[in-house]
Amino acid sequence: xxxxxxxxxxxxxxxxxxxxxxxxxxxxxxxxxxxxxxxxxxxxxxxxxxxxxxxxxxxxxxxxxxxxxxxxxxxxxxxxx
Length: 81
What we know:
Blueprint: H1 3-12, H2 16-25, H3 33-42, H4 47-70
Helix pairs in contact: 1-2, 1-4, 2-3, 3-4
């Protein structure tokens, strides 16, 4: 799954586990640093605070996706590519 597909998959089902998996998949991609920080914080949150963090993560994922679609961001290197 490439970065664009991973971002869309997370936006389709934004939950803490999906955020963690997305952050891991994009760990070597500098534009995803904010998303990775949100994922690290999500581990310690519950309920309402987690919901707010997931909203922030969705906003960040949308920003990254828009950057990929507009060409502002170079996609991360795909393993095996």
